[in-house]
């Protein structure tokens, strides 16, 4: 099996070198750059399977880099940053990131997050049902496309996986922790705010009234469920 190609975008020389050497030792093919312009250029030409993206880069900041990358690729993007507030993490997820890891990070945890994101990106969910339809919402699981009122809705990879998971378990209530473990695949490292951010963003894209959702409903004290009523 070919080595997974990882792009590291980090302006700190020591962090870039240490992380690169560790991931190469673990069997990844690593390319490292120190600024956003180089990162976008590399993604355009090579499309790595996953990007580790620092936020506080010189020139173009990580959030802006992520948005530009999302015009090119849907591959997983993990933000790495010393910024650790909930607001910082939410901004990263809203920019199109799939995960967020605060510095200084443990290299073993980084590896676990990379593997989990790659696993989800590569294999997704079972595709036994080719078309899922609920009212005006349709998901084509072979083409990974979502339509509302016959108009395609552009979703990020994790948003798509989240919607598909909930639709396949219609009316079943899942806690934020259960959803995190299912979609992100990490039992011990998760920030559950990641789930609420993705739920909110998904509602904006598929609901007529995001604050009064028809499909993805909050079950207070328990979690979330998909409803087709």
TrEMBL record:
Domain of life: Bacteria
Keyword line: DNA-binding, Phosphoprotein, Transcription, Transcription regulation, Two-component regulatory system
An example Gene Ontology biological process: regulation of DNA-templated transcription
Cellular localisation: Cytoplasm
Domain Response regulatory, first and last residues per copy: 5-118
Matches recorded under InterPro entries: CheY-like_superfamily, OmpR/PhoB-type_DNA-bd, Sig_transdc_resp-reg_receiver, WalR-like, WH-like_DNA-bd_sf
Main location: cytoplasm
Domain OmpR/PhoB-type intervals: 129-228
GO cellular component terms listed in the entry, alphabetical order: cytosol; protein-DNA complex
Residues bearing the modification 4-aspartylphosphate: 54
GO molecular function per UniProt: phosphorelay response regulator activity; transcription cis-regulatory region binding
Keyword GTP-binding: no
Annotated DNA-binding residue span(s): 129-228
Keyword DNA-binding: yes
Protein name, per record: DNA-binding response regulator, OmpR family, contains REC and winged-helix (WHTH) domain
Organism: Alkalicoccus daliensis
